[in-house]
Amino acid sequence: MVLRAGTRGSRLAMAQTKRVCGMLEKLGIKTEIVVIKTIGDDRTNVPMHQVGGQGIFVRALDDAIINGEVDFAVHSMKDIPAKRPEGVVTCAVLKRDSPCDYLVHNCPLEEVKVIGTSSTRRKAQLLRGGLNPEIKELRGNVDTRLKKLNSGDYDAIVLAEAGMQRLEMELPGTQLMPQWYVPSPNQGIIAVVCRDDKELAAKFAPLNDETTARDSLYERIVMEEIGGGCFTPQGIFCENGFMIAEVLSLDGKVQQRIEDNVSSVEDAHAIGQKLKVIAADLIEDARRKLGIKAF
Fold first, then answer.
1. In angstroms, rounded to a whole number, what is the distance separating the alpha carbons of residues 189 and 191?
2. Is 22 helix (H, G, I), strand (E, B) or coil?
3. How far apart are the C-alpha atoms of 233 and 128, rounded to whole Å?
4. pLDDT band at 39 (very low <50, low <70, confident <90, very high)
5. What are phi and psi of 190, to 5 degrees?
6. DSSP H stretches of helix in 227-279
7. Catalytic site includes residue 79
8. Which of 5, 141, 166, 268 supports an S-S bond with 221, CB 3.0-4.6 Å?
9. pTM (2 decimals)?
């Protein structure tokens, strides 16, 4: 039996899918890759929150699994929405790569004035971080973003360091430490999703890393409790049971932050519930200013 792997056609998505296929091949499981195109790949000229967030990429692959076009899909776990359709299940969480953001720049850091990113979280954290930059919208795959940087449209751009590692890219710049530039929940983690079929899901069990799976679960619980969608600047990072979670204003001037140990799903729910309460004004302000309809 050959398992069909669904993926986007971007270089990063392909690299992640090939990694998982390679791990399966070592287990004696044959695979083939099927490229699925999504609406988000076409509309790269508008902010992510206006086209439905990163979840638009995941939905197309979920549909391909449910419709029987493919057997499984490989995702950057941070892109997987909290709400999941019936018929699919996360069957493996790989050991986490770097959770950090990385500021790519060719000029000295003190000369960086214009930074490209489409993420409200990254924008708010950069504005808080003391650089006082102008933030300009930037979407597209890694190669597209680098081309715009090198053409002089930006002094710096923000990439996930894990993506750079997976593409074997060494770029000049500055690693942004996750204790201050708190990453998106599940950043640096690859997840495998398949049909909700116990026999099929069992084939992926050897790929699962228990520590990463536990930390990622706690992060997702906090994310789900906070809500706020992809438009709210929020960072959530758990490492070996130590949680940092924060919500920021769009301009980075105001923040609500919790740091605590987490040893159970109950702990994670409590942190998320508390942060949602103390950050309610920030979440509502972001929704209103970005023109997002109320939930």
1. 6
2. helix
3. 12
4. low
5. -100, 130
6. 265-278
7. yes
8. 268
9. 0.88
Query: Closest by alpha carbon to 178, among 231, 221, 214, 129?
Result: 129
Report the alpha-carbon distance of residue 45 to residue 29 in Å, rounded: 39
Residues in the chain: 295
Q: Mind listing the pLDDT tens digit for each residue in 222-242?
A: 999 998 777 899 999 999 999
pLDDT tens-place string over residues 234-272: 999 999 999 999 999 999 999 999 999 999 999 999 999
Report how far residue 21's alpha carbon sits from residue 11's, in angstroms, rounded to the nearest whole number.
Answer: 15
What domains are defined for the chain? 1-94+189-208 (3.40.190.10), 101-176 (3.40.190.10), 209-289 (3.30.160.40)
Integer Cα distance of 245 and 237 in angstroms: 6
Average pLDDT of 199-224?
97
The closest alpha carbon to 94, from 207, 234, 220, belongs to 207
Write the single-letter amino acid at 38: T
Region 116-126 average pLDDT: 95
